[in-house]
Amino acid sequence: VVGLASRAGALVSAAMDDTVRMTAAPDEGAEGESSATDGQPKTLSAATNASVSIVVTTSGVSLFDGSKQLSHLGSDAMGFEPTCAAISPDGSAVAIGSPGGKIYAYERTGDTLSPANEGKPLERHTADVTQLAYSPDGAILASGDAKREVVMWDAAKLELKQTRMVYHTARITAMAWSPDSTRLATGSLDMSVIVWKVGVLPTKRKTISRAHHGGVQAITWLDANRLVSGGADACLRVWKVDE
Questions:
Q1: Which of 5, 3, 9 has the alpha carbon at shortest distance from 37?
Q2: CB-based burial label for 36 (10 Å; 0-12, 13-18, 19+)
Q3: What is the model's pTM?
Q4: Helix residue spans in the chain (DSSP H)
Q5: pLDDT tens-digit profile of 220-229?
Q6: How far is residue 160's CA from residue 126's CA, in Å, rounded to a whole number?
Q7: Residue 202 three-state SS
């Protein structure tokens, strides 16, 4: 399994068996409904207030409603092989990262995705975009790259909002927003977790050093003040994060 999201009492997952599956959460052992993907899945991002999700595969990007594939954008048609993607909470917008550091914005209209911003990419990163995440309120898009930089974008205006967030020392491997959309937690191969606050200077960041030996691989928030991280050391750790 390369991606997992919970939504309305169900679990949506993407796996290396080239399928996307939707399973009722309480049904232990249930197989649920599944459909094949166009290529092996790499990442999954699900809208929190809609039934759609976006899956990055080895052949492009696919839009799903539950386990049903609605449409597919091939790498050849896009002109690049996507590295990651995120879908907004309401499912109306999609951001796709590229190997060259550019981020491409798309709008969802029904079952299809079409270029937004006149097809112009968001440009700031100088290395592969490795992580993308919309804030829960949909106002901000966060991105991270292979050269340690984290950026915040105004999701509506598609322009830079917060920069100079370069206090990791290696590839950004995970990111997650706090429930109130005011803080962003990022993880890196440098073994640390950093919590950034929207509208506050990066120098005021909170750093959890040596969170996981071998690097941080996953992050999520339990509530407004508790953060969970997972790493290459096969451990899950809960951190208390004061505002």
A1: 3
A2: exposed
A3: 0.94
A4: 75-78
A5: 999 999 999 9
A6: 15
A7: helix
